[in-house]
Structure of Elongation factor Tu:
Amino acid sequence: TGELTLPAGVEMVMPGDNVTLEVALDKPVALEEGSRFAIREGGRTVGAGVVTKILK
């Protein structure tokens, strides 16, 4: 669980779009650069990506 922050000027991401965004997680999670992840909402996968950078 966490909060996604879209880049300035981006209000919505549609299927087929590629975007770089920040994710602030509510709880600590073990992640490494290059790890794949899925974004789920209401039991459905609504996005997927790769961790490119870990921010402290």
Observations:
- The longest strand covers residues 44-50.
- Residues 2 and 25 are 4 Å apart (CA to CA).
